[in-house]
Amino acid sequence: MARTIIVSNRLPVKVQKDNKGELQYKPSEGGLATGLGSIYKEGDNVWVGWPGLYFQDEDNKNEATARLKDENMWPVFLTEDEIKLYYEGFSNETLWPTFHYFNQYALYKKSYWLEYQKVNQKFCDEVVAVANPDDTIWVHDYQLMLLPDMIRQKLPDASIGFFLHIPFPSFEVFRLLPWRRELLDGVLGSDLIGFHTYDDMRHFLSSVSRINFIGNHHGQIMRDRRTIVVDSFPIGIDYDKYAASAASPATLSREVKFRTSLGDQKLMLSIDRLDYSKGIPARLQIFDIFLSKHPEYQGKVSLLMIVVPSRDNVEKYKHLKEEVDLLVGRINGKYGSMNWTPIHYFYRSFPLEDLSAFYRMADVALVTPMRDGMNLVCKEFIASKLDKHGVLILSEMAGASKELSEAIIVNPNDKHQVVDAIYQALTMPEEEQETHMNYMQDTLRKFSIHHWVKLFLDRLTVVKDKQKKMATKVMDPAMRAKLLQDFEESKERLLFLDYDGTLVPFNSDPQKAKPDQQLLDIISDLTAMENTQVIMISGRDKNTLQNWLGHFDVEFVGEHGVWIRMKGGDWKTIDTLDGSWKEEIRPILEMYCDKTPRSFIEEKDYSLVWHYRKVETGLGELRAREIISHLKYLSVNMNLQVLEGNKVVEIKNLEVNKGKASARWIEKSKADFIMAIGDDWTDEDTFKAMPKHAYTIKVGDLRSGARFSVRDHLAVRDLLEKMIAQTKAPIKS
User: Fold this and answer.
1) What are the 10-residue block averages of pLDDT along the chain, 733 residues in total?
2) 644-678 in b/e burial notation, b at 16+ Cβ within 10 A?
3) CB 410 within 8 A of CB 396
């Protein structure tokens, strides 16, 4: 039975040693552990990760392994050096600052990178050891970006999902990483790639386009003839858990105790892990400005600031802690009195009951990170507000701001804007607070952590099912053998062959894609066969086709169906066509050439083609989108069609297409073997015109109306050569 295998840097349980040296197993409190708890505990599902302890003693390691496996967990044992270089090093001193736009803190050490590769491979070995071919593997976060492709190399048909829980930076920032290509290649081993926000998804696709030179179509990337889907899936919280905790007797008793200690104060709440991305010093400076600008609130409002210790042995974090300590002391010394403390500062973590009490008490939650993937504190605050009184001030740099639009959204770099937001929050009428809170609670209740898990895994199933359906099109040896047999036994044959991308590879200079000797030999042999009719059906102009292939016994369709040349005849247009429209369209294309270096226009008799194969990746695709959008309405009014091919945009008369042209041969022919091969979406018209029994073959892309697919022009040539070799048909006299 198929299972789900979750892979993350840490297991949902932390193994620790007590004073006696005995192993203890402490559940993690994180949102991911909560959300995925129902998944990994089901049936034979497994969670693979580091147990959080270095094991020197083999007996302890065996004991922990047995205990964890009983709980559906599979440990990956890491050494102290591996954690130092892979986790603390590359993950948190290279990737973390880069992805959070603090690249001035990033360290690009080769020793970090080598260890990151090594540990990702170690995770891969463990996943492969536990995985079955039909299992779903869900890899989490930036510590394991190489893992999806490593697994793909070992398990090529595996269903693999990847989710990034931190922001993905813009291309200009991501490109600073020396190992940018390898990281993207690693993630692209997945079938479904998830991010918290559309912006993160957009940045990732841009980097893939400009670093890996792979475009996308509505978030779908085609790589190795496998469709990879990229989408945003905002993570939620266990809403019911926080609402229930806020209503529990333990929480209520703590709230009474805390309120008694604080007295009659308005309370602002700030909860963060110690990290430069959270903007803690800026928040303290903002509170200082607020008290100075609004002295009427001195003695009436306090900031409860909780900072959870994190990596305080690292120099940057030590300095951050010192800065926070100094700011808190300075503000309390500046404004405090015998009966009022402006900032209640705690450098430690609190149990859930205490946090729930703080959430209940707070009039304002101040969540203003400089950059954050999602930030769940704001969501926990809202879920805990059973009386619906309270205001959330939220940084637009946090992923949660895309969902919680009813909060007061601020730019944390604009300190005075945040000061004004605090005043607005403290003076907001309760009726307005309830309106905003109701809306946000409804959103969070619906889009909970459990909804997020189900949404991602269901989408991964759909993506994989579509891949499997597409894979049935890949021409395997059995399909090819059947085609060769049918070709050999047929009495009359009709072969429609596209040229560029089908018989020859694409060339940055279209005139350099002349047929080589191998291709000339293939066409010569095909046309020499008895009862075999070859039609070259191309977007090329008639003169080029005539010069390159006109000496063969071949019939032609040129310019996607504008021109045809039947056997023994001259070139003719299919319909009476008017090319005067080019005078209006050409200046538009020339304008785009002027602002797109290395692009150029090719003019045919009844079409214009804008080429961007030589243009910088990303810019060419952007300009193509602009051209298509620009010409969209013009083309309808002028009875034109805008075609997007491989690095080209072509404008031609609407009346003509390859399908309409090829239908002329289909209608007259009595062929019992028909084959059509093409590589881009202009060839889809040809495939549609073919009878059901025809062999229609798409080159490259699996997304096609064709019955079969082959990898590239070399596979096409190989197929044609086998057809020639196998046939026993007599040669034409």
Assistant:
1) 90 85 80 77 90 86 91 93 95 97 96 98 96 93 97 95 97 96 97 96 92 84 89 94 95 93 92 95 98 96 95 86 96 94 95 95 97 94 96 97 95 97 97 96 94 94 87 86 93 95 88 92 93 92 92 91 87 78 92 93 89 86 86 80 85 83 89 93 88 93 85 94 77 50
2) ebebbbbbbbebbbbbbbbbbbbeeeebebbbbbb
3) yes
Rounded to the nearest angstrom, the gap between the alpha carbon of residue 583 and the centroid of all alpha carbons in its chain is 42
Count of Cβ atoms closer than 10 Å to residue 338 Cβ: 5
HEC per residue, 169-236: CCHHHHCCCCCHHHHHHHHCCCCEEEECCHHHHHHHHHHHHHHCCCCCECCEEEECCEEEEEEECCCC
Structure tokens that stand for 637 in this block: 């009014």
Q: E strand or H helix at 289, and its extent?
A: helix 280-293
Bridge partners of residue 73, in order along the sequence: 47
SS3 559: helix
Cα 277 off chain centre by: 23
- Tell me the DSSP string of 83-112: IIIIIIIIIIIIIHHHHTT-GGG----HHH
From 65, 47, 188, 189, select the one nearest 127 (Cα to Cα). 47
Residue 345 makes CB contacts below 8 A (sequence gap 6+) with 305, 307, 324, 328
Minimal CA–CA distance to 144: which of 170, 169, 163? 163
- Sole residue written with tokens 């591996």: 82
Amino acid of residue 85: L
Q: What's the CA gap between 202 and 480, in Å, rounded? A: 40
CA distances for 216 relative to 31, 164, 191, 219, 700, angstroms? 32, 19, 14, 6, 15
Amino acid, res. 137: I
State the burial class of residue 502 (Cβ atoms within 10 Å of its Cβ: 0-12, 13-18, 19+). Answer: buried
- DSSP3 helix / strand / coil % (the chain, rounded to 5): 45, 20, 35
Report how far residue 557's alpha carbon sits from residue 538's, in angstroms, rounded to the nearest whole number.
6
Catalytic residue among 200, 238, 372, 498: 498
Instruction: Count CA atoms within 13 Å of residue 379 on its CB side.
Output: 26
DSSP 551: T
Distance from C-alpha of 159 to C-alpha of 175, rounded to nearest angstrom: 29
Tokens of 580: 């005067």
Burial of 108 (0-12, 13-18, 19+ CB in 10 A): middle
**Is 498 one of the catalytic residues?**
yes
Contact yes or no for 653/577 (Cβ under 8 A): yes
| Residue 364, both tokens | 């304002």
Q: Which of 141, 138, 358, 374 is nearest to 237 (CA)?
A: 374
Query: Around Cβ 315, how many Cβ atoms within 10 Å?
Result: 8
- Which pTM was predicted? 0.82
Q: How far apart are CA 510 and CA 32, in angstroms?
A: 52
Q: What is the CA radius of gyration of the chain?
A: 32
Q: What is the 3-state secondary structure (H, E, C) of 370-436?
A: CCECCCCHHHHHHHCCCCCCCEEEEECCEHHHHCCCCCEEECCCCHHHHHHHHHHHHCCCHHHHHHH
Q: How far apart are CA 233 and CA 230, in angstroms?
A: 10
Query: Hey, what are 496's tokens?
Result: 């429609």
Residue 256 is encoded by which pair of tokens? 């009474």
